[in-house]
Amino acid sequence: MNLQTQIPLKPQQYNQIDYNSKVLLLGSCFSENIGNKFAYHKFQSIINPFGILFHPIAIEHLITRAINKDYYSEDDVCFHNEQWFCLDAHSKLNKASKDELLSVLNSQIDETLDNLVNASHVIITLGTSWVYRHIESDKVVANCHKLPQKQFLKELGSVDTITESLQAIITLIKSVNPKVNLLFTVSPVRHIKDGFIENTQSKAHLITAIHNVVEPRQQLYYFPSYEIMMDELRDYRFYSSDMLHPNDVAINYIWEKFKTVWLSVDALQTLDKIAAIQTKKEHRPFNSNSESHQKFLSKLHLEEADICAKFPHISF
């Protein structure tokens, strides 16, 4: 008896990710979930230099500024609740000092550009079609930073608007890195604060817009994170306590699916060795001075050295 619908997935034939690949992940908190898997397994990866970005227009703004080296000035930052912040960035970049914030923002501009130029793969996870427009500046923001709601207008991005934004993202990235592989996905996190019907409409706009631009022959791909969560993990036991975010079981499940499609055979073999090393490093001995533990450590160091010799960018 089959108690689960399975989304058919095949290994990607070309341009798979291996340990020589450089991966940049941008977008929603689900980008961070998958990005943490890349980091744990020691891939060359960077996650959200400007923090979590929920919608495509925020990602487009970041990429545009980075490629144009459009550095931030004091006119671009604000002060509220005893912190300096930027409406283009997540609150994790907030600082107590204006100069410190500007320094961080502009260093992230440089880092983002460097990663866009050198990335073999850019993975973009979109979370919502809903955006907030700052009334005073008439600009769509990445984050409202808990400013009074009356300062913003809430808008639903149309399919055409999102498609245009994605096309701009593709054109911008390929202008500095023509050979890059762009992989789009939709976050399975439900934005219920927008409303149940509104969340469904939002996800539908994202999915439709992505499929308007995806073209494997141009190295533009789609991975069905959202569909896996909705169809294969159709049960609240796969959600966190808020019943909105995928829990660790779901994240691990989607990661396993991603691995089968996008990681090369050699990468999978290396990943298994690194995962084993990471597990051993978490081991806590009863007696750290025992002979058996010292042998365990010696063997572990040899395993680490073997990986590092093959991939010098890896450190444990």
From TrEMBL:
Source species, domain of life: Bacteria
Residues in coiled coil: none
GO terms of molecular function: hydrolase activity, acting on ester bonds
Domain GSCFA per the UniProt entry, residue ranges: 22-258
UniProt xrefs under Pfam families: GSCFA (PF08885)
InterPro entries registered for this protein in UniProt: GSCFA (IPR014982), SGNH_hydro_sf (IPR036514)
Name under which the protein is recorded: GSCFA domain-containing protein
Organism: Winogradskyella psychrotolerans RS-3
